[in-house]
């Protein structure tokens, strides 16, 4: 149904990619998305040892013979070190992963130009998630194969430039020659069609995949995302140089208040810990931790299988594009 630079690059049916999600993007969800015709995601930060990471890759390959992405986030972390980043990159090259989603610091700066060359020789496609034109231009010059244009609407860690997907996507499309994938505020066929009209060759989403049957989170979380609206997320972390967007809840209110009175990183760390977030996903406590979701939660209407979600999105997007062509 769709033929874009992304479907051609990876040999997939739909140009729909899952973004990295700590504790959630593991083999079952990754494989389900790829089997449904999109690109699943295996988030490297879920694994602390080379053996665990390599086993997760091989487990995913037992569940699907389709390509999938690996997310490697180059951001400050207590648990994940620079040595982990080097290990993830090396294993991805050795295992000949289809593609890597790099977020945070550019790969050439964080791991050296040798890492870029090694991965390209292994046939791994490199995409950098950016929130500005300047970072997209740098990625293209550094040898990346594509760009994820991530607007301020996205969950996780949007760039502090605070530019929306609606503006960022066409600005990056006109500034680079490599394929651009739109990120942020996308959760259905209408938003997917809009991304194509802005010049994107594909879409990435993460929050929407939480409310799927294959995502291993507590049912309370899925129902909470259906209940919540687009205005019920908030930005935090600006004061420590690590901006994030998460669902409004008690702990996020506490974090924002702590920042407002000048609380520093050491005071905030206990509320931001990965283990705290992991426990919240598993136990379904929506108030206990920052749940990193985007404004697209306003578009989530129900829990679907990954196949139902992707098939429906593709059908809706095609219908929207057909209507648009008649208007023109």
Silhouette: globular
Low-pLDDT runs: none
Query: What is the helical fraction, as a range of percent?
Result: 40-55%
Q: Give the averaged pLDDT, no decimals.
A: 95
Strand content: 5-15%
Write the layout of secondary structure elements.
Layout: H1 5-10, E1 16-18, H2 27-35, E2 40-43, H3 50-63, E3 68-74, H4 82-94, E4 99-104, H5 107-110, H6 113-121, E5 125-130, H7 133-142, E6 146-150, H8 165-173, E7 180-183, H9 189-197, E8 202-205, H10 207-210, H11 219-227, E9 233-236, E10 244-247, H12 250-260, H13 265-272, H14 274-283, H15 306-327
Parallel strand pairs: 1-8, 2-3, 3-4, 4-5, 5-6, 6-7, 7-8
Antiparallel strand pairs: 9-10
Q: Can you walk me through this structure?
A:
With 328 residues, the protein is an alpha/beta fold. It has 2 domains: 5-216 and 303-327, Aldolase class I (TIM Barrel), CATH 3.20.20.70; 219-295, no CATH class. The chain is built from 15 helices and 10 strands. The chain has helices spanning 5-10, 27-35, 50-63, 82-94, 107-110, 113-121, 133-142, 165-173, 189-197, 207-210, 219-227, 250-260, 265-272, 274-283, 306-327; strands spanning 16-18, 40-43, 68-74, 99-104, 125-130, 146-150, 180-183, 202-205, 233-236, 244-247. The chain has an 8-stranded parallel beta sheet with strand order 1-8-7-6-5-4-3-2. The chain is globular and about 50 Å long.
């Amino acid at each position: 149904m769709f033929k874009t630079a992304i479907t051609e690059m990876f040999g997939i049916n739909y140009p729909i990619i899952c973004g990295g999600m700590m504790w959630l993007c593991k083999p079952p969800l990754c494989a389900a998305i790829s089997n449904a015709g999109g690109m699943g995601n295996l988030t490297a930060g879920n694994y602390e040892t080379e053996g665990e990471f390599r086993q997760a890759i091989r487990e995913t390959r037992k569940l699907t013979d389709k390509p999938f992405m690996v997310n490697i986030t180059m951001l400050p972390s207590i648990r994940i070190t620079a040595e982990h980043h080097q290990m993830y990159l090396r294993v991805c090259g050795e295992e000949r992963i289809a593609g890597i989603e790099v977020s945070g610091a550019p790969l050439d700066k964080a791991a050296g130009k040798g890492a870029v060359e090694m991965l390209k020789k292994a046939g791994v496609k490199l995409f950098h998630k950016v929130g500005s034109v300047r970072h997209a231009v740098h990625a293209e010059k550094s040898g990346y194969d594509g760009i994820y244009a991530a607007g301020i609407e996205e969950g996780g860690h949007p760039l502090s430039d605070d530019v929306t997907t609606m503006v960022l996507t066409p600005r990056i499309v006109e500034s680079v020659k490599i394929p651009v994938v739109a990120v942020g505020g996308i959760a259905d066929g209408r938003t997917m069609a809009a991304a194509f009209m802005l010049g994107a060759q594909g879409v990435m989403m993460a929050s929407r995949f939480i409310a799927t049957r294959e995502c291993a989170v507590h049912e309370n979380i899925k129902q909470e995302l259906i209940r919540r609206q687009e205005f019920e997320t908030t930005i935090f972390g600006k004061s420590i140089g690590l901006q994030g967007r998460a669902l409004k809840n008690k702990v996020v209110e506490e974090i924002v208040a702590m920042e407002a009175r000048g609380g520093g990183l050491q005071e905030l760390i206990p509320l931001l810990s990965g283990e705290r977030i992991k426990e919240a996903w598993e136990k379904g406590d929506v108030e206990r931790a920052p749940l990193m979701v985007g404004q697209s939660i306003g578009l989530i209407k129900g829990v679907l299988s990954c196949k139902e979600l992707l098939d429906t999105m593709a059908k809706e997007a095609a219908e929207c594009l057909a209507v648009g062509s008649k208007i023109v």
